[in-house]
Design goal:
Distance between the termini: 33 Å
CATH topology of the largest domain: D-amino Acid Aminotransferase, Chain A, domain 2
CATH class of the largest domain: Alpha Beta
Number of domains: 2
Radius of gyration: 19 Å
Structural class: alpha+beta
Order of helices and strands: EEHEHHEEHEHHEEEEHEHEEEH
Largest sheet: 9 strands, mixed
Strand content: 25-35%
Low-confidence stretches: none
Number of strands: 14
CATH superfamily of the largest domain: D-amino Acid Aminotransferase, subunit A, domain 2
CATH architecture of the largest domain: Alpha-Beta Barrel
């Protein structure tokens, strides 16, 4: 079984130093309190980004999303943007990293006086964690592609849990992932509350029909940075792209399909339920992938 996050094992990750509230700890010593909001309730937000050839990829957009999501769940990040950038740079420097790095930024509400959901019992500033890892996508994913299966777990409405927020509370997506894996899929293709295709459980979904690229409106997806870059690339290169609602029956007529994500960029999809898609170098998917790779390497 493949995954959109398949990567080659790198023994250097055994000795990485992790940032926790301004200090660095070896991986084996990096710990947080059992009264931390993230462990008690999944109360917080996160983001991930790549460090490639001595450069953070789309740093502004990732920080825009992080601070936006924090505000939406009423967390005030204790570091100003420049301070957080300094923390990211220091994390890279301390670990002597140059390229093929994937970083996870976690911001939780902080330590609580007792296991209870109310922010009123929080007794510390928000916790900030930065986990850097040497991670390079496994090239097999671009050759083999992902197998998607539809699941019963859906992306909910904003007034239940806003699906656009990159929160630590990922149970909805985890359940979809479990359901997909039990059906033999690599990822879940999820519906929204109206029966339209919304997104995958950990990546964004696109399909191609007659050289037109389709993706959802984004209303029921995490705000996708790579997703938006692909939309922009299509527009810039005169590849017709449409953001709209569509049903599974329309997807099942697709010529191609692909998923997007921060880690692996653009990943071809080889199968959706029982429908198999042919992966070949001439596909529009690979033209888009090549344009994306050029963008991150400039």
């Amino acid at each position: 079984m493949s995954s959109s996050h398949d990567y080659k094992y790198d023994k250097r990750n055994n000795n990485i130093k992790i940032y926790i509230n301004g200090k660095f700890y070896l991986r084996k010593n990096a710990k947080i309190s059992v009264f931390e909001s993230s462990s008690l309730l999944g109360d917080g937000i996160w983001d991930s980004l790549r460090y490639h050839n001595n450069n953070f990829i789309f740093l502004k957009e990732h920080l825009d999303r992080l601070y936006k999501d924090a505000k939406l769940i009423d967390i005030k990040i204790p570091l100003k943007r420049k301070e957080l950038i300094n923390a990211l740079n220091k994390t890279i420097s301390v670990n002597k990293m140059i390229t093929n790095v994937h970083l996870r930024i976690i911001v939780s509400r902080g330590i609580k006086s007792t296991p209870y959901q109310s922010p009123a019992v929080t007794i510390s500033k928000p916790t900030i964690i930065i986990i850097p890892e040497y991670k390079k996508p496994d090239i097999k994913i671009y050759k083999k592609g992902l197998k998607l299966v539809t699941v019963n777990t859906i992306r909910g409405p904003k007034n239940v849990q806003d699906p656009q927020i990159n929160s630590l509370s990922k149970l909805n997506c985890i359940l979809a992932c479990i359901e997909a894996n039990k059906k033999g899929g690599d990822e879940a293709l999820m519906f929204d509350i109206n029966g339209n295709i919304a997104t995958n459980n950990s990546t964004h979904f696109f399909y191609i029909k007659k050289n037109i690229v389709f993706t959802s409106t984004g209303k029921y997806c995490v705000t996708g940075i790579t997703r938006q870059k692909i939309i922009d690339i299509c527009k810039k290169n005169k590849i017709k792209v449409k953001q709209q609602n569509f049903k599974l029956k329309e997807v099942m007529t697709a010529d191609e399909a692909f998923a997007t994500g921060t880690f692996a960029g653009v990943m071809p999809i080889s199968q959706i339920n029982k429908k198999k898609l042919i992966i070949k170098k001439e596909n529009l998917t690979f033209k888009i992938l090549n344009l994306y790779n050029k963008l991150i390497n400039t």
